[in-house]
RNA sequence: CGGGGAGUAGCUCAGUCCGGCAGAGCACUGGCUUUGGGAGCCAGGGGCCGCGGGUUCAAAUCCCGCCUCCCCGACCA
C-alpha cells in the first residue's frame, strides 16, 4: 500500500484501499472465474474463527448441523412464486452433465429453501417432530452483476439456518432470537456495533413474511447489511406442502424461518476497523493474537533470542493466546513489523538481546491508545496473564472505538429533504428520519440520493424525539435508518 | 445493459503520438555483508507485447476485426 494514504470517506479512495488490503493482508486473491474468490489461508483462518463462534452459539440455542444438495431441480425453485422471481435472474443453471443434456436443468443453489423444504416435508409428520432446528454450512452461487471481494462474490460461503415450528409466535420468536445471536456475535466477536430492525417490503427476502437485519456502518460511512433473519410464515410450507398433525388430529402447515451470515462478514471486519496501515483485527478473530519478532546480530544472540521466544510462546499458549513466532531469516525486523501490522495482528512482541538481558519483552500494540506509550516493556515473568488481559482490553476498546465512530457519523431528527440530500452527497453515515410508509416515496428517495432505508430500527435504537414528518412532508409512520449502502 | 479506462516479465508500469535489438522498479534464485521501523553490493533466471488478419524491407508501435479485465451506475448477502 502506498505510504501515507488517508482512509477517507470518499468511497473511490476507499475502494482502492479495500482492494489493496485484501491483497496485501493475503486474505483473498482473484479467481480465474468471474467474480469468484480464492480465500487464502490467512483469510480462511478468520472465517474458521467466525464459524467456531457462531456454530457454538447455534448449538447453544438448540440447533443441529446437516447438509443438503448443491443442486436444486429447476421445478423446485418455481414452487414459491416470489422466491422464484427474486432468485431466478441470478442463478447459474446446469443443463448438461455426464455428456448428455439433462431432462430437467439443475440450478446451483442461491439459497437452499427449495431443496430443504421438499425433504423436510417427509421428515415432519406430527407436532412431536417440531420444532425442527437445522443449520447448514455451505457455499451458494448468485450471479450478481457486479462483484467485490468478500462483500459480493459470485460464489460465497455461509451458514443458513432453517427451522420449522408449530405456531406463528414460535417462528417469530426464533426469527428474533437468531437476529439477537447475530448481533451478539457482531458486537462481542467482531467488535462491530450494529443496528437491528425490520426491513421494508422492498428489501424483504423473496418469499418471506418479514425480514430482520443487522446493519453496520463502514469506515467510509456506507451501510452494510451484515446478517438477516427471516420469518417465512407459512409461505414455504404451502409451496412445498409441509404439514404436520396437531394434538387434535388436524393437519396444519408449519411455520418456518431462515437466517444466514456469509463470508461478507470478513469484508465487514476489514471495513469496520481498518486504517491506513492495513487491517485491524479484534483479538477474538485474529488468526494470531500475538506475533513474536526475534531480533539478533550473531549466532550466539540468535540462540538466546529464539530460546526466549520459545519460552514466551509456551507461556502465551498456556494462557490461551494464539501466538506465532516469526522466525523468518534474512529479513529485517522492520519489514516484519509492517507485515504484521498490515495483517492486523493486535499485539507484537519484540524479543532482542537487550530484552533477553533484562528478562523482559517489548510489547507494541497495533493501535496505540490515546496518551499511552507506543512501546511497553514487560517482565518475562507472568507475561501470559498480562497479555491475555491486555488482549481482552483491546477487544473491548475496538468495539468502543467502532461504536464512537458510528455515533459520530449518525444524524437524528432530520426532516428537511434538501438537507438530507446534501448529507448523503457529502458526509454520508446513518440518518434517522421519518417515513410515511409509502413504497413510492421510498423509491423516489433512492432515485434521488442513492440512499435506502436500511432498517426500521428496533425500539432500543429509536430516537427519544422521532421526526413527525417523512422526508416527503407527509406524516411519519415509522422512524427509519437511511444510508447509502453496499 | 449504459458511461469511462486498460491489456507489454509474477506485480506496478514505461515504451505506442513519430515503425528500427523487449525495458524499468519491485518480486524471485545464488553468494557475501546486514538485522531494535520497509537493508546493501555482486551475479542470475524470467516475455505468444490479449487474439486474428492487413500494410511494410521491418510492427508492441500504423489499419481492420475480435476477446478479456478493471472502474462508475442499474441488480444484490
Notes on the structure:
Strand 20, helix 13 and strand 21 (430-435) form a beta-alpha-beta unit. This protein is 36% helix and 27% strand. By secondary structure, it is α+β, with helices and mostly antiparallel strands. The chain is globular. The chain is built from 14 helices and 23 strands. The protein has an 11-stranded mixed β-sheet. Strands 16-15-17-18-19 form a 5-stranded mixed β-sheet, sandwiched between helices. The protein binds one RNA strand of 77 nucleotides through strand 11, strand 14, helix 10 and helix 11.
Largest sheet strand order: 3-7-8-14-11-10-9-22-23-21-20
Helix content: 25-40%
- The parts where pLDDT drops under 50 for at least 5 residues are 1-5
- Average pLDDT rating: 93
The largest sheet is: 11 strands, mixed
| Number of E strands | 23
Quick description:
It is built from 14 helices and 23 strands.
Amino acid at each position: 500500500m502506498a505510504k501515507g494514504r488517508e482512509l477517507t470517506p470518499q468511497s473511490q479512495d476507499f475502494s482502492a484501499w479495500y482492494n489493496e488490503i485484501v491483497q496485501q493482508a493475503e486474505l483473498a486473491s482473484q479467481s480465474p472465474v468471474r467474480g469468484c474468490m480464492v480465500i487464502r489461508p490467512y483469510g480462511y483462518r478468520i472465517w474458521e474463527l467466525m464459524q467456531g463462534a457462531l456454530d457454538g452459539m447455534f448449538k447453544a440455542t438448540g440447533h443441529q448441523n446437516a447438509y443438503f444438495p448443491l443442486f436444486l431441480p429447476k421445478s423446485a425453485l418455481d414452487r414459491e412464486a416470489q422466491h422464484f422471481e427474486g432468485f431466478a435472474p441470478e442463478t447459474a443453471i446446469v443443463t448438461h452433465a455426464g455428456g448428455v443434456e439433462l431432462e430437467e436443468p439443475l440450478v446451483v443453489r442461491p439459497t437452499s429453501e427449495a431443496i430443504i423444504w421438499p425433504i423436510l416435508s417427509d421428515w415432519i409428520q406430527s407436532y412431536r417432530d417440531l420444532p425442527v432446528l437445522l443449520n447448514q454450512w455451505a457455499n451458494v452461487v448468485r450471479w450478481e452483476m457486479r462483484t467485490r471481494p468478500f462483500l459480493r462474490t459470485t460464489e460465497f460461503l455461509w451458514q443458513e439456518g432453517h427451522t420449522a415450528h408449530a405456531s406463528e409466535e414460535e417462528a417469530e420468536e426464533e426469527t428474533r432470537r437468531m437476529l439477537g445471536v447475530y448481533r451478539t456475535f457482531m458486537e462481542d466477536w467482531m467488535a462491530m456495533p450494529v443496528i437491528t430492525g425490520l426491513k421494508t417490503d422492498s428489501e424483504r427476502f423473496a418469499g418471506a413474511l418479514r425480514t430482520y437485519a443487522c446493519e453496520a456502518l463502514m469506515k467510509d460511512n456506507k451501510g452494510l447489511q451484515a446478517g438477516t433473519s427471516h420469518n417465512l410464515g407459512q409461505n414455504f410450507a404451502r409451496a412445498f406442502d409441509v404439514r404436520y398433525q396437531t394434538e387434535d388430529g388436524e393437519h396444519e402447515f408449519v411455520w418456518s424461518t431462515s437466517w444466514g451470515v456469509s463470508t461478507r462478514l470478513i469484508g465487514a471486519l476489514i471495513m469496520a476497523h481498518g486504517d491506513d496501515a492495513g487491517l485491524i483485527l479484534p483479538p477474538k478473530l485474529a488468526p494470531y493474537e500475538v506475533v513474536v519478532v526475534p531480533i539478533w546480530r550473531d549466532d550466539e544472540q540468535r540462540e538466546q533470542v529464539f530460546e526466549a521466544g520459545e519460552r514466551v510462546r509456551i507461556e502465551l499458549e498456556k494462557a490461551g493466546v494464539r501466538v506465532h513466532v516469526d522466525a523468518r531469516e534474512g529479513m529485517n525486523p522492520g519489514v516484519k513489523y509492517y507485515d504484521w501490522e498490515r495483517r492486523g495482528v493486535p499485539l507484537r512482541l519484540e524479543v532482542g538481546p537487550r530484552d533477553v538481558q533484562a528478562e523482559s519483552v517489548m510489547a507494541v500494540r497495533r493501535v496505540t491508545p490515546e496518551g499511552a506509550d507506543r512501546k511497553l516493556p514487560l517482565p518475562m515473568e507472568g507475561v501470559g496473564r498480562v497479555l491475555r488481559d491486555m488482549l481482552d482490553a483491546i477487544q473491548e476498546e475496538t468495539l468502543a472505538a467502532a461504536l464512537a465512530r458510528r455515533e459520530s457519523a449518525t444524524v437524528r431528527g432530520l426532516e428537511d429533504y434538501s438537507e438530507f440530500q446534501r448529507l448523503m452527497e457529502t458526509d454520508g453515515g446513518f440518518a434517522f428520519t421519518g417515513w410515511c410508509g409509502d413504497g413510492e416515496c421510498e423509491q423516489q428517495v433512492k432515485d434521488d440520493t442513492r440512499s435506502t432505508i436500511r432498517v426500521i430500527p428496533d425500539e432500543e435504537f429509536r430516537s427519544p424525539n422521532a421526526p413527525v414528518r417523512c422526508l416527503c412532508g407527509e406524516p411519519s409512520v415509522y422512524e427509519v435508518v437511511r444510508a447509502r449502502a453496499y
